[in-house]
């Protein structure tokens, strides 16, 4: 089973499903064409239930061509109904495959305004970039992201973790990230797929500050902290906030958003997370996979976007920019998030 999965991933999941859909619809068309030819010769015919089965089994496009190009079964009500249902059934995977090949391979830059009473008015307009879940992103794609970020006047860049450690791929990614020009630097945490020793060493070599249950005062009244990944090691929000002062706006970075439900986080004003990929492969954007509980213990609660814990702590979960190896994104477009901060 594992060998089959590896083959699918290596060949390309989208490519395999697209090939399957095309072949199935071609077969359906040929069945209709063959049956029409047999009807003309008054010979043995394909059973109608077989034609309807293939029409409904993702073969709606082939059935449509077979019925109207061959002028076959077009007057029978049950075939008309089967065709409509079959077209809808076939359109669902087709739309997802097209989305996976197009928009889901294009990084979007999401600009958000964040308002908080804790934010110092003197820092209004401060811009914070957030990127996470890099995985096997190519150096070329990372270079394009960096070039765009350098056109967006960032004051601070935050990295949410999860690089590809295989064949030291992360080194090229970090080398590109180090070119981002900011006023106050680049800070980042580890993710559950990271070897933190190697990652943090490479970050320091590239002028990136690791956050590991610690934090820094970026400006008076603005404190940035980060925790170890809760799947890898011992995460501690309390340790990360030791250097903060009462009244500070506290920005906490945790690769896994579940931390806001596992530890007291009331002293934080905003938590930035990744980890979920927005569900990676979704049904029109709904993250069905997250319901399994293997990625997050809280279903879709922190699947994507701005959400809150039971105590009201705000968490923004990004879909990230990379793919986990060759598993495609479907209706989970990769993104870089930029927050512009304001006092309410």
Task: List key phrases describing it.
344 residues; 2 domains; six-stranded mixed beta sheet; 12 strands
Secondary structure layout plus pairing:
Elements: H1 2-11, H2 13-40, H3 48-56, H4 60-69, H5 77-101, E1 108-116, E2 126-131, H6 139-149, E3 156-159, H7 169-177, E4 186-188, H8 196-205, E5 209-210, E6 214-219, E7 222-226, H9 237-240, E8 249-253, H10 259-262, E9 270-273, E10 305-308, E11 314-317, E12 335-343
Helix pairs in contact: 2-4, 2-5, 3-4, 4-5, 6-7
Task: Describe the structure concisely.
By secondary structure, this protein is of the alpha/beta class. It has 10 helices and 12 strands.
Please explain how this structure is put together.
By secondary structure, this protein is an alpha/beta fold. 35% of the residues lie in helices and 18% in strands. The protein contains ten helices and twelve strands. Strands 1-12-2-3-4-5 form a six-stranded mixed beta sheet, with helices on one face.
Beta-strand portion reads 15-25%
Alpha plus pi helix count: 10
Q: Give Rg in angstroms.
A: 25 Å
Could you say what the CATH topology of the largest domain is called? Answer: Purple Acid Phosphatase, chain A, domain 2
The string of secondary-structure elements, in order, is HHHHHEEHEHEHEEEHEHEEEE
Separation of the first and last Cα atoms: 54 Å
CATH architecture of the largest domain: 4-Layer Sandwich
**Residue ranges: pLDDT <50 for 5 or more in a row?**
none
| Helix share, percent | 25-40%
How many distinct beta strands?
Answer: 12
Widest sheet: strand ordering: 1-12-2-3-4-5
The assigned structural class equals alpha/beta
CATH level-1 class of the largest domain: Alpha Beta
Major sheet: 6 strands, mixed
Shape: elongated
Question: How many separate domains?
Answer: 2
The overall pLDDT average reads 95
């Amino acid at each position: 089973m594992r060998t089959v999965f590896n083959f699918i991933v290596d060949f390309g999941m989208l490519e395999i499903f697209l090939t399957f859909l095309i072949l199935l619809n071609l077969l359906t068309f040929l069945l209709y064409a063959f049956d029409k030819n047999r009807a003309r010769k008054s010979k043995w015919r394909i059973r109608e239930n077989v034609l309807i089965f293939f029409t409904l089994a993702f073969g709606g496009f082939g059935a449509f061509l077979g019925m109207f190009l061959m002028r076959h079964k077009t007057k029978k009500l049950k075939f008309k109904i089967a065709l409509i249902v079959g077209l809808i059934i076939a359109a669902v995977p087709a739309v997802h495959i097209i989305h996976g090949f197009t928009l889901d391979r294009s990084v979007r830059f999401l600009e958000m305004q964040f308002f908080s009473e804790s934010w110092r008015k003197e820092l209004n307009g401060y811009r914070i970039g957030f990127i996470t879940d890099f995985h096997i992103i190519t150096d070329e794609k990372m270079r394009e992201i960096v070039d765009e970020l350098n056109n967006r006047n960032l004051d601070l860049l935050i990295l949410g973790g999860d690089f590809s450690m295989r064949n030291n791929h992360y080194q090229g990614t970090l080398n590109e990230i180090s070119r981002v020009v900011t006023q106050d630097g680049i800070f980042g945490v580890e993710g559950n797929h990271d070897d933190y020793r190697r990652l943090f060493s490479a970050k320091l070599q590239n002028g990136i500050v690791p956050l590991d249950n610690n934090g820094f005062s970026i400006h008076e009244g603005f404190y940035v902290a980060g925790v170890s990944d809760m799947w890898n090691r011992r995460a501690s929000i309390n340790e990360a906030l030791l250097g903060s002062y009462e009244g500070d706006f506290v920005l906490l970075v945790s690769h896994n958003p579940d931390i806001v439900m596992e530890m007291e986080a009331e002293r934080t004003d905003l938590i930035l997370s990744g980890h979920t990929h927005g569900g990676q492969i979704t049904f029109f954007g709904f993250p069905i996979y997250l319901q399994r509980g293997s990625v997050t213990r809280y279903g879709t609660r922190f699947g994507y976007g701005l959400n809150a814990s039971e105590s009201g702590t705000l968490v923004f979960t990004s879909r990230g920019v990379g793919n986990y190896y060759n598993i495609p994104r479907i209706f989970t477009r990769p993104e870089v998030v930029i927050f512009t901060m304001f006092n309410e």
